[in-house]
Model the fold of this input.
Amino acid sequence: MKRFSRLVACAIILLLPLALPSAAAPEAAALFEAKIVAERDSALATLEAAAPGDPAAAYAAGAGEFFTALEILAGGLHRHGFDSPQSFVLPLMRLPVPDNANPEPMTYEQFRAILVAFRDRLEKSAATLDSVPADADIGMVIDLTRLGIDLNEDGTIAPDESAAAIMASLSRGGGAPDAAGPALIFRFDRADGYWLQGYAEFLMAQADFWLAHDFRDTFDGSFHMLFPRAKLPLQDTLVPPDGGMSGGILSSEWRIADFISLVHLINWQVVEPERRQAARRHLMEMIRLSREDWKAIRAETDNDREWLPGPQQKGASPLTGLEVGEQQIQAWLAALAMAEDLLEGRTLLPHFRIADKGINMKRFFDEPKTFDLVLSITGPAIAPYLERGKILTSEEFNQIQRQFGGAGFLTFALWFN
Done:
């Protein structure tokens, strides 16, 4: 498995909760190694009840809430016959959901409800993980071939629904997972809890941004590309008679056409402005948590199956094939400062056709107006957010990129969070 493909698979699926398969915590073992969803849910409820007085239980429960959020999303997509184009780039639309021979019809309101349930479970996960004390002594070992989610809502967690199998599927570019996932065993510690909590905030930012807007026209006019048998308004007119299933966007003329429609139809009116404001807060919290993560990593003195190693923890990661040096950490912290300055409006985002002004991203989120993707690219839609001030330069960003060497900034960014 190529290291970048494996990393992208990991970052997109974001399915790496933490487990404690020890005799001292049978509920955690039942939670993360369960093959029956009802048994898994019972173990999660037991851990949630113990969480207020037990940091290890809170840690495991927060992780369990994270991956059951992914299960809510996957189950909802499967229920309505989701068929992800292999080259589709939206992270939430890359889950390798199995085929559904008898999908249920879906409405715009039902799709929003899936996003709301997914987002709300992530919020619960973040709150539970946040309750774990910073000095808690955590050491939880998990084999990703034994951890999974119920992708098809049949009440069981099969070998081809394991985290390792799902990641292997994504590394191949899509398609249904198989049971022959790679062996990946990690020992998760307190630092990794910040990492997972940060990814929960990142996913909440995405969900809240969608939910802040009315995207019904996009749904009605293009989502049959993703749900070709869910009785969407243009299914009978635009979906091929054979269903046009499988394959990437670029290998399918009808999907190319629908992707163009999707981009054209992203002209979304704001209906819940507080959600767009919340999206920025989630991103700011993600930045804070990443700093806490690296502070905790640098304080570690062991080197035991690290998910995200520090410079003092030598050896290539079995997930990425990379080692982490002080140079990469310093560059990453500089990237976090740059992102924070953009989100706080202290630095302005450049636009290719406007030389003397930049986009105030704080105002973009906090003073929401209609989001038009094409007009944002060409300029008119971002005009209300243009200001004079310090504008981020390409050289500033390139200087950070160079610190990551041949593996590249994106590879480390997906891994580091």
